[in-house]
Design a protein that fits this description.
Blueprint lengths: L1 H24 L4 H24 L9 H21 L5 H8 L2 H11 L7 H18 L9 H26 L7 H23 L10 H28 L3 H4 L1 H17 L5 H17 L1 H15 L3
Length: 303
């Protein structure tokens, strides 16, 4: 059952990038549609978990969860949704896999934690992968919006890293981590609505298009509610490292999904750059993966 849930989670997270692309290409305002997704998913999850476990309403006023939502949801997905107007869903997914490198960089230069040699190599490999992915499109006739989209996604991973590290240090506790995730999504969703109010014209007519509605439904229910619930279930039943390995698998799923179902270009250099970035991500987390493997081996030894 654990393996089945893990595969399901990877498929969900791998296909959400294409679902975002479909919604944005349908003409929906990126910030407003992202706000609908996350506030809606967060509110539904919080309502369900409150009925089941009676989590306190005071959680909605948590300063820590507001700051976590600013990083994990608002900063990460405002940039991603905006960027997918110009960048393919596969490229967006691969660039999003740089998040562990951003976390490592913040731990090293911000929190003054020592970086393992394998992590240093992993960061170098990941940076090379980003250049391999972007360089073929750098020319005198390059699309400035495409390049801006790539850098926006990378900036979004800085927000993600900050939110992740703050969440680890937060003293906020609740009956269920799902409730914490629901509240931070609501805060992030509200901030996305505010950003949309000041920067977008609305384009409410596009919200009635079937493609956008299906995209929103998939992202809200399957992506945010089921996907994240599976992630937290796997964290509680295994450990924090194993579920996070979706970052090594889902980007390739996203690249293939965009190529097979949406006709996105899949050049040799794109594939090489994607694999290089994922290899760098694995190296960055090499010590954590080794620790996980040792624990599993010890758990199987008879005593």
């Amino acid at each position: 059952m654990i393996l089945l849930f893990y595969v399901w989670m990877c498929l969900i997270f791998g296909t959400t990038f294409l679902a975002i692309k479909l919604g944005v290409d349908a003409g929906a305002s990126p910030f407003f549609s992202a706000g609908l997704r996350f506030f809606g998913a967060g509110a539904l999850l919080f309502l369900l978990i409150r009925i089941k476990e009676r989590v306190p309403l005071a959680l909605l006023l948590s300063r820590d969860l507001f700051l976590i939502g600013t990083g994990l949801t608002f900063g990460t997905f405002a940039t991603l949704y905006w960027a997918e107007q110009f960048v393919s869903s596969g490229t967006a997914a691969v660039l999003s896999a740089t998040a562990p490198m951003m976390i490592l960089g913040m731990q090293t230069f911000g929190l003054k934690q020592k970086m393992q040699p394998s992590a240093i190599v992993g960061c170098a490999v990941g940076i090379i992968g980003v250049f391999l992915l972007i360089l073929p499109n750098l020319s005198l006739s390059m699309n400035a919006h495409w390049l801006s989209g790539c850098f926006a996604i990378i900036l979004g991973q800085v927000f993600y890293a900050g939110g992740t590290l703050y969440a680890r240090r937060s003293k906020e506790t609740a009956v269920s981590p799902i409730a914490l995730n629901a509240v931070q999504m609501m805060h992030g969703g509200l901030l996305l609505f505010v950003l949309s109010f000041f920067t977008e014209n609305g384009q409410l007519s596009s919200l009635s298009q079937p493609v956008f509605l299906l995209s929103l439904l998939y992202l809200t229910v399957v992506g945010s509610m089921i996907g994240h619930t599976l992630y937290y279930y796997l964290v509680t039943k295994t450990n924090p490292v194993f579920p996070s390995t979706w970052l090594y698998i889902s980007p390739l799923i996203a690249v293939m999904a965009g190529f097979l179902f949406y006709g996105e270009e899949l050049s040799r250099m794109t594939l090489i750059g994607s694999i290089t970035i994922i290899a760098g991500t694995i190296l960055v987390n090499a010590e954590a993966l080794k620790s996980l493997a040792r624990k599993r081996i010890l758990a199987r030894k008879p005593y």
